[in-house]
Every structure is written in structure tokens, then in C-alpha cells.
Specification:
0% strand, 64% helix, 69 residues, extended, 3 helices
Length: 69
């Protein structure tokens, strides 16, 4: 049980700040999760493009957000 929520939150923020982003590693993780989902039958060829319009709208919205340092 977490007794000091403020201390825990400070710990989490510090941990996140210390971690370096690795695009290649993140891409490998996403591809691995996608492959696993395909093997489990969660994604099939029939629904590959299902909802693509929504995905494109979300991607455009994300790409329009100004990047902050």
C-alpha cells in the first residue's frame, strides 16, 4: 500500500525524467505486440483497414500539435 502519495508521485516523475527514449526499441515492442495479437487472432486480414479513417484523423491531429521541449 502506498502511504505517501506525494513521495510516490515524485519518484515516478524522477524515474520518467531519467529514462531516455529509444525509438527503435519502442518500434520493436509495438511490432512484437502486433505480431502476438495477430497470432492470437485479435487482428485478421478482414479487419485490417477497419477504422482507418479514424486513425488518420487522430494521426493528423497529433501531428498538428506543436512540439514542446
Amino acid at each position: 500500500m502506498i502511504r505517501d502519495a506525494a513521495r510516490w508521485q515524485a519518484f515516478e516523475h524522477e524515474l520518467i525524467a531519467k529514462q531516455k527514449l529509444d525509438y527503435a526499441e519502442n518500434l520493436r515492442l509495438v511490432e512484437g505486440m502486433y505480431d502476438l495479437a495477430r497470432k492470437l487472432g485479435k487482428f485478421t486480414a478482414e479487419d485490417a483497414l477497419d477504422g482507418i479513417e479514424k486513425t488518420i484523423r487522430v494521426a493528423r491531429a497529433i501531428n498538428c500539435v506543436r512540439r514542446t521541449p
